[in-house]
From TrEMBL:
Residues 198-270 form the GHMP kinase C-terminal domain. Keywords: Amino-acid biosynthesis, ATP-binding, Cytoplasm, Kinase, Nucleotide-binding, Threonine biosynthesis, Transferase. It catalyses: L-homoserine + ATP = O-phospho-L-homoserine + ADP + H(+). Residues 55-137 form the GHMP kinase N-terminal domain. HAMAP family: Homoser_kinase. Belongs to the GHMP kinase family. Homoserine kinase subfamily. This is Homoserine kinase. GO terms for cellular component: cytoplasm. The gene is thrB.
Amino acid sequence: MIVKIPATSANLGPGFDCLGLALQLYNSITIETDRPFRISLTGTYNEGIATDETNLVWRTMRHLWESINYPIPTVALTLENNIPPARGLGSSSAAIVGGLAAANVIAGTPLSKLELLQIANTLEGHPDNVTPALYGGITLAVSTENGILPRVLGQGTNLKAVVLIPNLRLKTEKARSILPPNVSRQDAVFNISHAGLLIDAFIRENYPLLKEAMRDMLHQNQRSVLIPGMFETLKAAEQAGAYGTALSGSGPTLIALVPEISKDDVRQKMLSTIGQFGVEAQALTLDMDHEGVIFSEK
Ligand code: HSE
């Protein structure tokens, strides 16, 4: 069996810890049952990935089986990692969502997607990457007293994403530790209104609204000190034709949502602008993922 999990971009500006979208860049997990335990790595980003029992995909699979009292099978896993780690593109969410989806199928699919989301949220800590990784599309995750309430807002039809991935790793814990514990009422109102506008823009596919709608006052200003040239690069993307721009998750990746016609200009402008700040980076132009995690028989 092969499980494919999309990369994700969280926050999208004002939607801190609740909005996200899925992208057509995938990690995959190939599972062979009734084999001696073994984890093999393929793909581009394998540095620092454990191949023993501490591996995050494997620990997540065990967690699911233990929580439903399913006897732990021995499996051989091949992990293909194409989502760069610690860049703000949801690599740890992909590991968790992939592990849960794989373990659930092996156990005979006892849990629904909504139940997997609740477990994924507990393991990951915030729901904004795991929700689009499970459902695909552009998603809102609402934390309620009964768990996460997921909504798929749209599919981003006719939108491309240019993701500029700086060659520096930034752990989410570090990028969260610099945020102040309290926010002003003024900033809260700014983000509530802009997140509302952003949802309106996605539902109606009214993309010219994105430029204003993706503005944020809760986290991007503080985090810009960790990413040289961040605001200059986002501005350059807008000037080159992007509808809207944001820091992807907790960074350091920057995301521009663009019309097809501007994608090459935006890509080049983002690369050249961040280069002026001495930051090496690669840029990918990606389509939206519409399905979320999927599995197929080998
Ligand atoms: N929303 C998180 C943050 C990152 O910005 O810290 C992804 O969960």
